[in-house]
Design a protein that fits this description.
The chain has 22 helices and 18 strands. With 697 residues, the chain is of the alpha+beta class. Strand 4 and strand 5 (92-94) form a beta hairpin. It binds adenosine-5'-diphosphate and magnesium ion (MG).
Length: 697
């Protein structure tokens, strides 16, 4: 088995090994330099690379190539062109030029642009991202690309991501230079995204329109058993799940994705897959592929993978933990505390920069995870609250406290650094407790951003992390580069920064009500819904941040905000319409039919025994008739609310009406329907129940 895995691993990827083997030495060197430095590639080099890629891809069975990109729809897009070029009647050769590799033209008119691209200028361009490997899948060579408008505005999630990676590298290197590092040329952020998901039987899924149209159940009374016995988490894998996971691993390994850990999660039929981390742009691409393959492979097993944040009420939803760190081009993780005082100081400075970034830009952190699906999780006692805070662990907390107070740190092996600040003792990673309730936790040598939704493209959260930390780095470098006494300046800066931003550090229970009050007292932002969050996107502060670092322009931010608002309303609208349809055409008629059946039964009974006891029948008929009448009325309320929302032209106001009228109307309707489900004969209930969906695999 071991040999087989190592043979298939990355076998469909045009990776470093293949490049080295297939490219002339000079071309290989030039390409790897491009990848390492993030610079653009030479046209002559591109021609050679394209040709080698094509030959390799054809050997792997490819006939087409596609520029694979990430428009603002949240999913990926692809359009396939074949390699064929006619060279006479009935004769073709296979061709692929450097130009075709580097740049593609695509009609962009049907992708969301948030007003960035007028419809008369429908052209969009895709541009190769050599930092993420090309791969062959289903007979096509996939080339990861960025997607821009004719005027160069980013119409995708990758372009700002690549720009943010440049920004943090540029500013981070300025700091490293201060510590005498003269050789590091590139700093990369690394990301490992732990992906949660649910699995449901395809036959049952096909009987639920809510799952089909919205990815979650819009109705459903709780099953007698949920996750209270905690017997699913890390429990043994059922054979169908295990077979699915094995196929998924194999497919991902073939594409060079380091699928590493798989296990059952907390809720029934919930699972998780964690990869080994990669450079951020690659990690984003790999996470998108992972999600795509989860769905694809599940279908092959007669299953459906639900990536929605909250498929079922009453049990945990799914998130995604974005493990994030900083790494030099020599492979040194800068969030490893290190052993010498100088390494300690560098670590503390980077830590201070991150704490400052998260505090200064809480709004952006929150926005980056705001999604209607995630509104069901954040703050619902199963995921971090909607308030952003940082968890550092007891030891780092004490170190920071001692720096703020100017006192010696009294930990194990502690000493005093030249900087006049306490040094970190040999840092014990296992002392960083795993506070599951923290939105952003330090876990020894990386931060774990835990607010992300399972269905989300992880690009934006990482754009935010990279850019906000780049800004802290910039400010620090500006101060320190001019310092006469660097050590003293670092000591002062650390003390000031920790003191100014310690409010964002919190190691208590993030699920508690006290924390909400305490956070308010500390002046931290609490943005409970996506709509609350989106409003903060295009503030002057945020526009300045992104444009200063060349990550997003004012118009790119405004367009994204518009798309977020629009997307919110569209999703709520689809959910509302699905509920209306299911209630009107399936549920209300089913309950009526059952009422009729009970009445018929009672009448039959009385025809035999005139004074038979019909209390049960009467009670059922009375209660269900009443509930059904209420359901019918709530359908009308929901219709009205949805109509009112659609009538609003302004995208922000429309989203507000969705949040304030449509969502509450949906909740009312659901409550009544769920109550009817608990009283209606299973024979009459028109769809699979929670017991079926979560336990029958
Ligand atoms: P856990 O106990 O939470 O599973 P792990 O150490 O196994 O912790 O890591 C979880 C995720 O974090 C994995 O995807 C792993 O690859 C990723 N990870 C580990 N180190 C780093 C790093 N330096 N940068 C980014 N992600 C990392
Ligand atoms: Mg984790």
């Amino acid at each position: 088995m071991e040999k087989r895995v190592s043979e298939i691993f990355g076998s469909m990827v045009f990776n470093d090994e293949v490049m080295r083997e297939r490219l002339p030495k000079e071309v290989y060197k030039s390409l790897t330099k491009t990848i390492a430095t993030g610079k653009t590639i030479d046209a002559s080099v591109a021609d050679v690379v394209a040709n080698a890629m094509k030959d390799w891809a054809i050997e792997k069975g490819a006939t087409h190539y596609t520029h694979w990109f990430q428009p603002l729809t949240g999913v990926t897009a692809e359009k396939h062109d074949s390699f064929i070029a006619p060279v006479g009647p009935c004769k073709v050769v296979m061709e692929f030029s450097g130009k075709e590799l580097i740049k593609g033209e695509s009609d962009a008119s049907s992708f969301p642009s948030g007003g960035l691209r007028a419809t008369f200028e429908a052209r969009g361009y895709t541009a190769w991202d050599p930092g993420s490997y090309a791969f062959v899948k289903d007979g096509s060579l996939y080339i990861p690309t960025a997607f821009c408008s004719y005027t160069g505005d980013a119409l995708d999630t990758k372009t700002p991501l690549l720009r943010s990676m440049d920004a943090i590298s540029t500013q981070g290197i300025r700091l490293l230079r201060l510590f005498g590092d003269t050789t590091t040329k590139r700093l990369s952020t690394t990301v490992g995204a732990e992906q949660e998901y649910f699995i449901v039987d395809k036959k049952l899924f096909d009987l639920r329109e809510d799952l089909q149209f919205t990815g979650r159940t819009l109705f459903g009374a709780p099953a007698p058993k949920g996750q209270e016995l905690e017997d699913h988490y890390f429990g043994p894998l059922k054979p169908r799940i295990s077979a699915f996971m094995a196929d998924l691993d194999e497919a991902l390994w073939t594409l060079g994705i380091n699928a590493k850990t798989k296990h059952n999660e907390a809720a029934p039929s919930q699972h998780e897959l964690a990869p080994i981390y990669a450079t951020t742009n690659m990690a984003v691409d790999q996470n998108l592929l992972t999600m795509e393959y989860m769905k694809l492979i599940a279908e092959k097993h007669g299953l459906v993978c639900l990536l929605h944040e909250k498929p079922y009420a009453g049990v945990n939803g799914s998130g995604k933990h974005n493990n994030w760190s900083l790494c030099t081009d020599k492979g040194k993780n800068l969030l490893d505390a290190g052993k010498t005082p100088a390494e300690n100081a560098k670590f503390l400075l980077i830590l201070a920069a991150i704490i400052k970034a998260v505090d200064d830009y809480q709004d952006l952190m929150r926005i980056s995870v705001a999604h209607p699906g995630n509104d069901h999780r954040l703050g619902a006692n199963e995921a971090p609250p909607a308030i952003v805070s940082i968890f550092l662990g007891e030891e780092l907390d004490m170190i920071i406290r001692s720096i703020i107070d100017g006192k010696a740190y009294e930990g194990v092996n502690a000493g005093i650094m030249d900087l006049g600040i306490p040094s970190i003792p040999t840092f014990r990673k296992d002392t960083t407790d795993r506070n599951r309730t923290s939105p952003f936790a330090f876990t020894g040598n990386k931060f774990e951003f835990r607010m992300l939704g399972s269905s989300q493209n992880i690009a934006l959260p990482n754009v935010v992390l990279n850019t906000t930390v780049a800004e802290s780095f910039r400010q620090f470098a500006d101060i320190l580069e001019g310092a006469d006494d660097l050590d003293a300046a670092i000591g002062k800066l650390l003390k000031e920064t920790f003191a100014a931003h310690s409010r964002i550090i919190f190691d208590g229970n993030g699920y508690s009500e006290e924390w909400e009050k305490e956070a308010e007292r500390r002046g931290l932002l609490n943005l409970p819904t996506s709509v609350d969050a989106y409003k903060h996107f295009n503030t002057e502060k945020n526009i300045k941040l992104f444009s200063d670092h060349g990550v997003m322009s004012r118009s790119e931010i405004e367009s994204r905000e518009e798309i977020l608002f629009e997307n919110y309303s569209k999703i709520i609208n689809i959910e509302a319409l699905t509920m209306i349809k299911m209630a009107s055409r399936d549920i209300i008629p089913a309950v009526n039919a059952y009422i009729g059946e009970v009445a018929k039964g009672a009448a039959a009974k009385v025809s035999f025994i005139p004074n038979a006891n019909c209390e049960v029948e009467e009670d059922i008929i009375e209660k269900l008739s009443d509930l059904n009448a209420r359901a019918y009325a709530y359908v009308e309320v929901l219709k009205e609310a949805d109509k009112a929302a659609i009538a609003v032209c302004d995208v922000e106001q429309r989203a507000e009406v969705c949040r304030d009228r449509v969502v509450p109307a949906m909740k009312e309707l659901r409550a009544v329907v769920d109550a009817m489900e608990e009283m209606t004969s299973s024979e009459f209930w028109p769809m699979p129940t929670y017991s079926d969906l979560m336990f029958k695999i």
